[in-house]
């Protein structure tokens, strides 16, 4: 017996509920940065760069018992439909903060007292889910910079669209959908380093969304690691 | 570096791992909550919330303005938080830092996503004039857990917000400040914040508990027990089981908080 499963009508772009958008990541794309990565996820185009560990001229930010990280999430004015005014706003301030918190648990910062690691995420083009894509790219850039880490953090969102829990919301789904749950994990231990929820969900739906997002994280993690290996295969 | 939390960390963690807390509460118990409403007569809605010694004043101000182009028939809602230098020795004056931006955005998200405020009823003339609701949160005493205190303050200020009656006559807005109506609300939200200390998810962290926090989770819940917002904070990861446990407690605690809000 042949059972034809037709999931095509679930989502506008024809993806099944647990399918990621097309995904591509490359590390070592910038010359000057100590580490860098470029990522495309659906229509998102994101660059991440890491400088450090280094001294900082803002001495009060440094700590004598551990290293610190500084994170800046920034959207290019041309990355969205209506030009975004350059410079930080409330949204990017919040995302910078939670991105730093999502990455910090993986970093062995205690090895670098009195020094700072600078992480920059530049969104060149945005199409929904930039914070997760930014975290995935930044983690790859950190690995590329040779910063010692417990794990390579990876992020992915799940959400609720047309009463269905689906993986990796596109811009349209994010706007028209009912909820969005971005999650970042350390894939070796499944520890959650970022979790937000935006929209209405029952307790059950929330659990489903978290499980689905974690599944998506593992899928992205594989490709993220291939990208890092590839960089060194090429340089041999 | 603040060394006091480093010194107290072990003893606080040991006490919590035994299922107790330094102030004698249980792991899932709120501190005493006091709410006064209508404390500022110049504001259209206001409230002062005391959560233990943490104190937040919320004021709701209204003005008539232009709707956003993509939502011509909806009123505008904005939440802002100021963490004032009087609240803690380490707080400095200046533009909102990332902590106060996060606080404002998380409270805003819970209120917005729950569709608690009926924004459609705030439309005066479609595409031209709508009511703009500004919720300003003033943090005046910081003894831990600003998220829950700020959410309580914002919601109780909204619950007593009155809007002057406006009528549209030949596309001119006539406002009658004598007649005031309650703002249209569909729902009420509460927020419950947990910190992970040792192996426990501890509800309503005090200042000492927050200073040693391993990871934080704030859960916004609607009156019907659905999740409307969530935010993880802090430098340490959480386990999936921790998150699910916290969500479960938050939904249960929401009823308790809704009762306090409507007392």
Word description of this protein:
The complex is a heterodimer of chains A (236) and B (263). Chain A has 236 residues and is of the alpha+beta class. Chain A has one domain: Ribosomal Protein S5, domain 2. Chain A is 29% helix and 31% strand. Chain A has helices at residues 90-103, 130-144, 171-176, 203-235, and strands at residues 23-27, 35-41, 44-54, 68-75, 116-125, 154-161, 164-167, 179-186, 191-201. Chain A starts with 22 loop residues before the first strand and ends with a helix. The model of chain A has no long low-confidence stretch (mean pLDDT 92). Chain B is α+β, with helices and mostly antiparallel strands. Chain B has one domain (3-261): 2-Layer Sandwich (Ribosomal Protein S5, domain 2). Chain B is built from five helices and twelve strands. Chain B has helices at 3-17, 98-113, 146-159, 207-211, 240-261; strands at 33-37, 45-51, 54-65, 76-83, 123-125, 129-141, 162-169, 172-182, 189-197, 200-203, 215-222, 227-233. In chain B, the strands form three sheets. In chain B, strands 1, 2, 3, 4, 5 and 6 form a six-stranded mixed sheet that branches. In chain B, strands 10-9-11-12 form a four-stranded antiparallel sheet, with helices on both faces. A two-stranded antiparallel ribbon of chain B has the order 7-8. The mean pLDDT of chain B is 92. The chains are: A alpha+beta (236), B alpha+beta (263). At the A-B interface, α1, β8, β9 and α4 of A face α2, β12 and α5 of B.
Layout of secondary structure:
The complex is a heterodimer of chains A (236) and B (263).
Chain A: E1 23-27, E2 35-41, E3 44-54, E4 68-75, H1 90-103, E5 116-125, H2 130-144, E6 154-161, E7 164-167, H3 171-176, E8 179-186, E9 191-201, H4 203-235
Helix pairs in contact in A: 1-2, 2-4
Chain B: H1 3-17, E1 33-37, E2 45-51, E3 54-65, E4 76-83, H2 98-113, E5 123-125, E6 129-141, H3 146-159, E7 162-169, E8 172-182, E9 189-197, E10 200-203, H4 207-211, E11 215-222, E12 227-233, H5 240-261
Parallel strand pairs in B: 4-6
Antiparallel strand pairs in B: 1-2, 2-3, 3-6, 5-6, 7-8, 9-10, 9-11, 11-12
